[in-house]
Write a structure and sequence with these properties.
This protein is α/β, with parallel strands linked by helices. Helix content is about 25%, strand content about 30%.
Length: about 220
């Protein structure tokens, strides 16, 4: 028998969207590294803990890392498999009490509340995604004095075997413009590219480019 879910479930979930991500996660026992994303860790390390919203949390590397540093985290994803893995890993890490896990299809609904940190890490999808609308909703969820951190892929990985002529990666300036933040209400703390070493599917390594926007609500 399947145990009942221990997290709220958004009833407005697109079946095709959910099916795509379920298939991706069910292909492997683990999809992501389980470590916190590098830019997130760098940004958060000096901050006092507060309330955080992790959008597209996947298997929970960021959420568990934040909770381990005293943050109260709301972790959101559309994949039940990913959320089940997050819940199990958070329990093993002893931080489950600081993580609220919820299933949302961000193309349709958005979690309520205000947060000291809203993190959108690689919120890019091969499926249709109203990205700008989601990111603007993310900005609205930032509490006064809080921060919005958006990190996106800035270029295809060097091991990509196929070129996609219609694929386009927004620049940091374009990401910031799409957020449509009121200049008198926000201060941009970071805008640019970050580089890190990644490992491809066949064990090859290369430099990956991430585009970063960090803005603080006044």
């Amino acid at each position: 028998m399947t145990e009942p879910r221990a997290y709220p479930v958004d009833p407005a979930v697109d079946a095709d969207t959910a099916g795509f991500w379920e298939e991706l996660y069910q292909r492997r026992d683990r999809v992501w590294s389980g470590r916190a994303n590098a830019v997130l860790a760098e940004v958060v390390e000096p901050l006092p803990p507060g309330a955080a919203l992790d959008l597209g949390c996947g298997e929970g590397g960021d959420a568990i890392w934040l909770a381990g540093r005293g943050w109260r985290v709301t972790a959101v994803d559309v994949s039940t498999t990913a959320l089940d893995r997050l819940t199990a890993e958070a329990t093993r890490a002893g931080v489950a009490s600081r993580i609220t896990v919820a299933r949302h299809d961000l193309t349709r609904t958005f979690p309520a509340g205000r947060y000291d940190l809203v993190s959108a890490q690689f919120l890019q999808s091969p499926l249709e995604l109203p990205r700008e609308a989601v990111l603007r909703a993310a900005a609205r969820a930032v509490a006064p004095g809080g921060r919005l951190l958006v990190v996106e892929h800035g270029a295809p990985p060097p091991w990509a075997r196929e070129s996609h002529p219609h694929a386009r990666f927004a620049s940091p300036e374009e990401i910031l413009a799409a957020l449509d933040l009121a200049p008198d209400g926000w201060h941009t703390e970071r805008l640019g590219a970050a580089h890190r070493t990644g490992t491809g599917p066949d064990g090859e390594t290369g430099t990956l480019v991430d585009h970063v926007v960090l803005a603080r609500r006044r």
